[in-house]
Amino acid sequence: MTSAPDSSEAALAALKPRASWRESMAVYTQPRVLIVLLLGLSSGLPLALSGSTLLVWMRESGVDLGTIGLFALVGTPYTLKFLWAPLVDALHVPFFTRRFGRRRGWLVFSQLLLICAILLLALTDPARSPLFVALGALLVAAMSSTQDIVVDAFRVESLPESEQAAGMASYVAAYRIGMLISTAGVLFLVSAFESTGIARSTAWMWGYVAMAAMVLIGTVTALAATEPEQSAQAEAATRGESAFNRVLQAAIGAFSEFLTRKDAWAALAFVVLFKFTDAFSGTMTAPFVIDLGFTRNDYAAIVKGVGLAATLIGGFAGGFVARRYSLAASLWIGAVLQAVSNLAFSWLAIVGVNQWALALAISVENFTSAIGTVIFVAYLSALCRNPLHTATQYALLTALAAVGRTYLSAGAGYVAQATGWPMFFAISVVVAVPSLILLIWLQRRKHFEMLGPVRV
């Protein structure tokens, strides 16, 4: 476990000059950062294959809307992945662990299973058997979320402090690109197959087969990577213990080690609330844009085009901020930017139907949200300090972070209906206040200093 720096270390850190822009950008070309980038691409690919892309395939196959709506439940593994994260931390995969190591073995194993699950889903027929489609999609989601568990642990353990921020920014950007490939990319690919005279159902099958093949990018990357030193040390420390004891220690230790820290409950509350302002407004962004009078195509083109570009730029800007400033200062920058950016939608509500205004509002929101996300991931990574259960702790923290998006934002529609759009987005700024209060309190309690040498 990392210990808190003493006063001499703090003094030396204060005298150390901040990284220049050139130094900050050079770190993105480091081999470990490039490996994390490619793993991020592999993690982003499968999400839409069991989600939005699959729903388009089902609708084109004539599946009724009621059945399609039930497929939201297929995403359950992503919210419950912390339940089997201790297995990833503690268990050895026959042959794979011995041949590739603790983290890389699980990476290769989960990716091979993910490829098989996508191929199985590709062979189903939504028109004839939605049940088999659901089972295939559930397998894809389960294998995808398992891959996410391992990649998160690998990223936290493999990158040194000087490369953590760049690794996080690269991971977030590549994840978004992977999602774009498995949404717009698949749709274009299916259309291309259809244009050659192939039947629609067959075109969809080959589109999914192509996505299964792209997962091999992550597999080749895992094979080319080296096992994180922290993971190897943790593996050596528990080599003589039974599988049951290792799983038990990973599950219980992840909770007990975290909860015995000073101000643990306040830190957990901060994890829940930090992205709440983003989630609260984001829940209603699409209905708001359509309600203003924009077409579905207007929204899709701007979000997929301008919005994606702003997200990628914001991700790398977040990495620069996290590398240049302290963790506490970076969190302040991210928290304020992602809250204030909601006012761009209040302004758009007043301006009305104007494509340039929509592009600007979407760009501002995506840019600031990406900055906040990268910095927030830096904080979550800094909280996971024990390599014996990195995967379990990170999965738990990300599950908590999803509470704001999944549950606290559920009433956003009622607020928008009662207040109107300009006031709703102003309220979205105000809901950031509890997280800012917690940030002040944790900073005064020296919470961020006690994390030790922060991985930003």
Question: How would you explain this protein's 3D organization?
Answer:
It is built from 26 helices and no strands. The chain is mainly alpha-helical. It folds into two domains: 21-240, MFS general substrate transporter like domains (Growth Hormone, Chain: A); 243-456, MFS general substrate transporter like domains (Growth Hormone, Chain: A, Up-down Bundle).
Give the SSE map.
Blueprint: H1 7-15, H2 21-26, H3 31-44, H4 52-60, H5 65-70, H6 76-80, H7 85-90, H8 96-100, H9 102-122, H10 130-158, H11 161-195, H12 200-214, H13 216-224, H14 229-237, H15 243-259, H16 264-273, H17 276-282, H18 285-292, H19 296-324, H20 327-340, H21 343-351, H22 355-383, H23 390-406, H24 412-419, H25 421-430, H26 433-444
Helix pairs in contact: 3-10, 3-11, 3-13, 9-10, 9-12, 9-13, 10-23, 11-12, 11-19, 11-22, 16-23, 16-26, 17-25, 19-22, 20-22, 20-26, 21-22, 21-25, 24-25
Domain Major facilitator superfamily (MFS) profile: 32-446
InterPro entries: AmpG_permease/AT-1 (IPR004752), MFS (IPR011701), MFS_dom (IPR020846), MFS_trans_sf (IPR036259)
Protein name: MFS transporter
